[in-house]
Design a protein that fits this description.
single chain; mainly alpha
């Protein structure tokens, strides 16, 4: 164990050459690019799942409307409200995307 400590101290004392630093930088850049690609793929996967969940939720809300007599009027009205909000285009989002 003491040998490892001595080796670490010797390594710290040695300075990296410009080429070594350049290689390390390239390695970090490659790792960053790979992580960025993975992050983008994961974001797309999450968005796909969110859209799927939205459709599933809407399906169940429409089923509540089809069987409205089995639920309280407050719950049915809440489902109607959520369906309307979900299916109504949001003007704020559209103007932000254009600008």
């Amino acid at each position: 164990m003491e040998e490892n400590i001595k080796k670490n101290e010797e390594t710290k004392k040695e300075k990296l050459s410009y080429e070594d630093l350049e290689n390390v930088t390239k390695q970090f850049a490659a790792q960053l690019e790979a992580a960025s690609r993975e992050n983008s793929q994961l974001k797309k996967a999450v968005q796909t799942l969110q859209v799927g969940n939205l459709y599933t939720e809407l399906e169940f809300r429409f089923k509540v409307l089809q069987n409205a007599d089995m639920f309280s009027t407050d719950f049915v009205e809440q489902c109607v409200k959520v369906i309307e909000e979900t299916m109504t285009p949001q003007e704020d989002v559209q103007t932000d995307e254009q600008g």
